[in-house]
Prior knowledge:
There is one protein chain. This protein is of the alpha+beta class. Among the domains are: 1-30, no CATH class; 61-152, no CATH class. It is 40% helix and 14% strand. It contains 5 helices and 6 strands. It has helices at 10-24, 61-72, 97-114, 121-129, 136-152; strands at residues 38-41, 44-49, 52-56, 157-160, 169-171, 176-178. Helix 2 (61-72) packs antiparallel against helix 5 (136-152). The mean pLDDT is 89.
Amino acid sequence: MHVDDYAGTQEHFHNVFLKKCKEKFSVSHAGLSEPGSSITFLKKMLVQLDDGISVTPGTDVEKLVESFEEKFGRAKISSVPCDVSIHLEDISHLLTVEGATHFRSIVGSALYLGRDRPDSIFCIKELAGKMSKLTLMALQHLRKLIGYLKGTGNLGVKLCNPTFGYGKWKVSEEAQWVA
């Protein structure tokens, strides 16, 4: 059994929930407690900050870059994951069967990474959409994405603590409130 969400007080968690679970199961658990404390969950690293939580992706960017460069050669560091040419008509030659296999494997890993890298998800989505007809141009777009990931490393997302009473106004016919 796996429990990844718990809603309740720390006291209830430790004194009631965890105690009952330990009566029937072998239990391991982790939680964030103070700034600097960290846990890994679903291969992601979560670090408690003073004003929120840092989430670093579980897919190792270095391994993704290494895998690409092993098969397709060096990727030059790029400041953007893709450019407008990703939408141009692609009439370039098809990749070899072996090249297409490696391309799909790398994009598959990138899809997993994309859940935690909003800066790259558009490009990853576009590359995944090209997998039925893999070409040299698609490979160049993948090379650019890999160059961007190479330059940004294991960049994470910071989730800030919410401030009660601040947010976007929500309005309905009956009421309005801050979400």
